[in-house]
Amino acid sequence: MGIKPGIKSLLFGFIVIGLAACSSSLRVGWFSRNLPTQTTAFYNTFTGTEQRQIEVDAGDEVVLDVQSKVTKGDLY
What we know:
Blueprint (H helix, E strand, L loop, with lengths): L4 H15 L6 E3 L2 E5 L2 E5 L2 E3 L29
Antiparallel strand pairs: 1-4, 2-3
């Protein structure tokens, strides 16, 4: 099951926009790992934005697996 080109472009746009505009931030206990096919980050306190740019080819599958536990503040 492939992703249609229009949906793929829209998804890529959301990823870029959602992860864009990196600004000053507070990071406590931050650890991240960037591999060619996977990006992982862990933190205790994080205020700001984080971005990653990805390239995909026609037929590629993009999977977003987000796991979060917010104990104070908001995540959006």
